[in-house]
Design brief:
The complex is a heterodimer of chains A (419) and B (160).
Chain A: E1 20-21, E2 24-25, E3 30-31, E4 34-36, H1 38-41, H2 43-54, E5 59-63, E6 72-78, E7 81-87, E8 93-97, E9 112-114, E10 117-119, E11 126-128, E12 133-135, E13 158-162, E14 165-169, H3 177-181, H4 185-192, E15 196-197, E16 203-207, H5 212-218, H6 224-227, H7 229-239, E17 252-257, E18 260-264, H8 270-274, E19 279-283, E20 287-290, E21 293-301, E22 304-311, E23 313-314, H9 319-332, H10 340-355, E24 363-365, E25 374-375, E26 382-385, H11 390-403
Antiparallel strand pairs in A: 1-2, 3-4, 4-24, 5-14, 6-7, 6-9, 7-8, 10-11, 11-12, 13-14, 15-23, 16-22, 17-18, 17-26, 18-19, 19-20, 20-21, 21-22, 25-26
Chain B: H1 5-24, H2 27-31, E1 34-43, E2 56-61, H3 62-73, E3 85-98, E4 102-115, E5 118-133, E6 136-146
Parallel strand pairs in B: 1-6
Antiparallel strand pairs in B: 1-2, 3-4, 4-5, 5-6
The chains are: A alpha+beta (419), B alpha+beta (160).
């Protein structure tokens, strides 16, 4: 394994033009129907993911209900880049790098709030909520040469919103948000049609394993009858009926393309007993919507991830109904839930421990439904049995494509095109 | 308020007894200390309103608490098989109020949880509402306000 200098992920283009991470061809990391354990373990793969995925694609940062009023803000990260998401005076959403243009101190360290100005605590440089530099103390020393108009908080390249879901993109080129969301849009519509809002409180649940394992688990129905058996036994008792969680006829797994995937439970009544949304949706690379929550996956390192779990508040429903949903959410998810911690213990932590055994065949198999799925010619969506691994196939196809994009390095001749 | 010494002594003895049951893993006996209206509450915010309208880590009524205990003792919970080893340090016990029916007790606890070879410190300000039963005190509310409730929080599936 090569040691890559922090912050630089050279993409060495071999004589045959093969994209790599370090000296490993991307084609050795992800193949059809299987994924190498290296993608969950290697620090240099993680660094490359930050640069080639999180710093280049549409990344979910907020829901508009978190910043409804002018001056409302929250802080978050895009990959490793700290940003401020703020409702500007013109009511648009601004996303700025959380770094003072003077000498780089972080400007805001509150998780959320409402403000009229952001004032850097170091030298008092003050920014308006549209990012513009409002003023600096003792400007005389700049001899009239301080051009405030170019020293506002640096905005991210692109901001996109779809029906309340706010995304940022750190590069100016590439697909539009709508193109990126693609076949995930109908599922986001199902959520938005329910007039959802995110309350201020959420769980922030860390685990010691790779970020992709959370996306995999969220698009996985195969495990439900095993890991969550006892929960569903309890539910059967409470409901007084038998539940077949591995696939009432009509339940489906979907490869939505662009890295997105879904589990669709919209057949029969069971889904509504379990949660407010009759599907699981994974939006590549960091957003999951399922049950009665929005989940944000925050990559910290190759073996550490933070997951934010936001319960959904349905503005059309009455308080009593929302309280029932909140208790259901507490019931299953979160650090003391009857389901979530088992997922973390097995699907994340035990996988991390198993991955340390890389001496044998280091492949993880993602081939359930690979050859049996049916493809919609018009949309490209692939559909299969609900226990099929179609969401994972979508995820790793997009991963492979993103990781194969040439990055700027000193090895690249000046003027060479960047894919 | 001025508290009769034997009341404080009885309350302390009861809290130490409760802690000893949790440390011993004797959850069924511990559960039996709760009244029918009893609640076990780990808030996520400093909200002081019941039933909480904001998200909690745990808000169990008696029935849900019984399910929680059942999951642990039956071995059905991955994260509690084997169960966490606990060591409760209970201190700073103060009787805040006694209206003749409910004794409102504030205390502090520092719990060391050993699970999967890792130790976690769980410091908390506690609030108990105790009622006098035939065989001594019973718990109508155990509220555990964790010191680090604002921080990212990993698995906490033991009873604290």
């Amino acid at each position: 394994m090569s040691n890559e200098r922090a912050g630089i992920t050279p993409l060495h283009i071999h004589r045959r033009g093969v994209p790599t991470v370090g000296s490993t061809p991307v084609d050795d990391l992800v193949q059809e129907g299987r994924v190498s354990g290296q993608v969950y373990r290697r620090d240099d793969v993680f660094e490359a993911e930050l640069e080639r995925i999180f710093h280049r694609t549409w990344v979910y940062v907020a829901h508009e209900s978190e910043i409804p009023d002018v001056g409302d803000f929250k802080t978050t990260t895009i990959g490793r880049q700290p940003v401020i998401v703020v409702r500007a005076p013109d009511e648009s959403v601004g996303i700025f790098f959380n770094r003072c243009r003077h000498r780089a101190a972080s400007v805001c360290e509150e998780r959320s709030g409402n403000t009229r100005f952001f004032r850097c605590p170091y030298h008092g440089w003050t920014y308006r909520t549209d990012g513009r530099l409002a003023g600096v103390p003792y400007p005389e020393s700049y001899g009239g040469l301080l051009d405030k108009s170019v020293l506002g908080l640096a905005p991210v390249a692109r901001v996109g919103t779809y029906r309340g879901f706010v995304f940022a993109n750190l590069v100016a080129d590439g697909p539009t948000l709508l193109e990126h969301l693609g076949n995930a849009v109908p599922y986001l519509d199902l959520v938005a049609d329910k007039d959802v809002a995110l309350p201020e409180e959420c769980y922030r649940y860390p685990y010691d394993a790779n970020w992709k394992l959370q996306l995999e688990n969220s698009g996985d129905n195969y495990h439900a009858s095993v890991i969550h058996k006892v929960f569903f036994d309890l539910l059967e008792e409470r409901m007084g009926q038998k539940i077949d969680i591995s696939g009432p006829p009509g339940w489906r797994a979907l490869d939505l393309g662009n890295g997105h995937g879904a589990l669709d439970f919209r057949v029969g009544d069971l889904a509504s007993e379990l949660s407010a949304l009759p599907f699981n949706l994974v939006v590549f690379p960091n957003l999951v919507v399922l049950g009665n929550q929005v989940r944000v996956v925050v990559p910290v390192s190759a073996q550490r991830t933070l997951v934010e779990m936001h319960p959904l508040h349905f503005t059309g429903a009455d308080d009593a109904a929302n309280l029932v949903r909140l208790r259901q959410f507490e019931d299953f998810y979160g650090p003391a839930g009857f389901g979530g911690p088992d997922d973390v213990a097995v699907a994340m932590e035990r996988v991390a421990r198993g991955l340390a055994a890389d001496g044998g065949d280091d492949w993880l198999h993602t081939s359930r439904g690979l050859t049996t799925a049916t493809t919609d010619e018009a949309t490209g969506v692939r559909t299969g049995h609900v226990t099929d691994e179609l969401p994972l196939q979508s995820l790793y196809r997009a991963w492979r494509e993103a990781m194969s994009v040439e990055a700027r390095t000193e090895a690249t001749p000046a003027g060479a095109p960047c894919l | 308020m001025t508290v009769a010494p034997d009341l404080l002594r009885d309350v302390e003895a009861f809290l130490f007894h409760e802690a000893a049951l949790l440390d011993a893993g004797d959850l069924e006996t511990w559960l039996a200390l709760f009244t029918e209206s009893g609640r076990y509450w780990l808030p996520l915010t400093r909200e002081d309103f019941e039933p909480p309208t904001k998200l909690s880590i745990v808000y169990d009524d008696r029935a849900h608490l019984a399910e929680r205990v059942q999951r642990i003792v039956s071995g059905d919970s991955f994260t509690q098989t084997p169960p966490s080893r606990l060591c409760h340090l209970v201190s700073n016990i103060v009787v805040a109020e006694d209206d003749g029916r409910v004794v409102d007790v504030a205390s502090m606890q520092l719990v060391v949880e050993l699970r999967g070879g890792q130790q976690a410190l769980r410091a908390a300000h506690c609030r108990h509402h105790l009622v006098r039963g035939d065989d001594g005190f019973m718990i109508d509310l155990k509220k555990v306000v964790l010191l680090d409730l604002d921080e990212p929080m990993g698995t906490l599936t033991c009873i604290i």
